[in-house]
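Amino acid chain
________________
===
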Amino acid sequence: MDFFSAMDVSSSALTVGRTRMNLISSNLANANTTRTPEGGPYKRKDAIFSATPLESRFDRTLDAATSQQVRKVEVAEIVEDQTPPRLQYEPAHPDANAQGYVAMPNVNTVEEMADMIGATRAYEANVTAVQASKSMAMKTLEIGR
């Protein structure tokens, strides 16, 4: 893999990581939102990722030689979790139904925090990969001196 392909793969992962962190932050911020413009409680959002081929002359050569394809990651779509809302008994709440239950968002804060830790680690790993690629390119340039 050439220098630019390595940077493209890592930068695409950084972009996806930022999107993932934004969605987790949104989920945590709306963990108690019982009323949305669409009606009903907030629905947890998640990203679906896809790997797409990275196009460069070097990559086509690598594909032919190894039958491996260099891929970058992209956000294919952002979906709403279809898990039903949890019902919480709060008869004094303005959004309570006739039985006194409030439909709360389907956001589990512990799960979101675990996802945030995983997203942070992945982001850090990709930053390290970008730095390593940059360092290798600089060492390569120093060979010519």
User: Anything to note?
Assistant: The radius of gyration is 22 Å. The mean pLDDT is 87. Residues 3-143 form one domain. The first strand starts at residue 45 and ends at 53.
